[in-house]
Structure formats: C-alpha cells, structure tokens
Amino acid sequence: MKYICIDIETTGLDPETCQIIEFAAVIRDTKTDEKLNESPSFHCYVKHKMYQGGAYAIALNARVFEQLSSKKPDAPIYTRDKLCDEFYEWLKLNEFEQSKTNCKIHFVAAGKNFGNFDLQFLKKLPKWNACFNVSARILDPAMLWIRPEDNRVPGLKTCMDRAGIEGEVTHHALQDVYDTIMTIELGLKNLWK
Fold first, then answer.
1. Does the residue 112 lie in any domain?
2. Among residues 135, 151, 142, which one has the least CA distance to residue 113?
3. Please, how many CA atoms are within 13 Å of residue 125, restricted to the half-sphere of its CB?
4. What pLDDT sits at residue 47?
5. Per-residue pLDDT tens digits for 138-180
6. CATH number at residue 50
7. Of 12, 33, 97, 108, which has the fewest CB atoms closer than 10 Å, so is most exposed?
8. What is residue 191's predicted lDDT score, i.e. its pLDDT?
9. For the residues of the chain, what is the DSSP string, one character each?
10. What would the pLDDT profile of 8-42 be if each residue is shown by its tens digit?
11. Parallel, antiparallel, or unpaired for β 105-107 and 109-110?
C-alpha cells in the first residue's frame, strides 16, 4: 500500500484564525524495502502577508520564522496557492494519478492527529479541495501504540517511546513526518509478528 505521511506547523490551534507556516510530506510504499531517507519527500515553508495566531505556537515555531525571513532558507517558501500547486505537481511526478472525472489526486494519508488537526487546516487552503481527495481511512500511529490502561489516545512522543525511538518531538515538520513513519512501520511490524 502506498501512503503519504504529512505534517504541518501552524501559528495556533484554530484553523479559522491561524495559519499553516510549514508543510512536509513523505511517500511510503509498504510493498518495497526502500529506506526511509530514500523515500520521496516534499518540504516547504508557507508565507502570508500577515501572521496571526497564538503567542505559544509562534514562539514554538521561531525556527520557521527565521527560515521565512532568511535570504537562504533550507527549503522553498511558497504562498498558500503555490503550496497546493507544487504539492500537486510533486505527487504527479511521483506517479500519483489524477481522477479522470475531476482531476483530483486521491491518496491515503498518515500523520499524528492528521484527521482532526492537519486536514482541517489543509482544507482551508484555497486550492486544497479542488486538487486533493484524501481517503477517509487515515493512518495514525496512536492506534498502533495505544494500550488498555491509557486514559487518552497517546501523542507522538508516547508512540515513539513505546516503539523504542529515542528523541523528542521536534516540531520540525519533516522530522516529525519521519518519526511518525517510524512509529507506524514499527507498530505494523509489531502487529504482524
């Protein structure tokens, strides 16, 4: 199965008033033995005319704002419209096909909190709904690492700990995608033992 793991960084928690400022995606195919660092990746920052959001999220993402104001950022900087255009072309280059009826690209998504957080922000992008059709079935590592004694769904850090992955959640979109993929793939191996 082919899936795309996506993570975003935002200026806050509310998709009505806050903005995406970083976007990352990695394509994985469970039928191959491709190493994670060899998988196709897409990473960019998203600029806006004005930024609004919460002080905590803005401080947490100071690194992103440094990149947005840098003369030599470590990834491309796009507008909201250009993000959708570039991501769409990247998916086509990586052999994701357009629907014959509406030209949308359909894909299975993965990500920690993707369905109830990231996707709500992505749907606010002007071109997202016209370009992409995300499967209702979303891979979330929490479902692979939840335990009966948990009082709530585990976060990415708990999933990483349970999978034996050292480190912290970085709030760097591309690194968080890699950590999410590792927790998913280790969880699936654990399931299939």
1. yes
2. 142
3. 27
4. 97
5. 999 999 999 999 999 999 999 999 999 999 999 999 999 999 9
6. 3.30.420.10
7. 33
8. 83
9. -EEEEEEEEESSS-TTT--EEEEEEEEEETTS---GGGS-EEEEEE--SS----HHHHHHTHHHHHHHT-SS-SS-EE-HHHHHHHHHHHHHHTTPPBPTTT-PEEE-EE-TTIIIIIHHHHTTSTTHHHHEEE-S--B-THHHH--TT-SS---HHHHHHHHT--S-----HHHHHHHHHHHHHHHHHHHT-
10. 999 999 999 999 999 999 999 988 889 999 999 99
11. unpaired
Answer whether 0.90 is exceeded by the pTM.
yes
Whether the CB-CB separation of 27 and 39 falls below 8 Å is answered with yes
Burial group, residue 46, by CB count within 10 angstroms (0-12, 13-18, 19+): buried
Which two structure tokens, joined as six digits, stand for 88?
Answer: 């769409």
CA–CA separation, 120 and 16 (whole Å):
9
What is the number of structural domains in the chain?
A: 1
Are 112 and 182 spatial neighbours (Cβ–Cβ below 8 Å)?
Answer: no
In the numeric block, which tokens belong to residue 176?
């968080």
pLDDT tens digit sequence for 44-100: 999 999 999 999 999 999 999 999 999 999 999 999 999 999 999 999 999 999 998
- Asked if residue 89 belongs to a domain, the reply is yes
In a domain, 81, yes or no: yes
Residue 193 has pLDDT above 80, yes or no: no
User: Which two three-digit tokens encode residue 58?
Assistant: 């803005």
145, two tokens: 């690492």
The answer to whether residue 144 sits within a structural domain is no
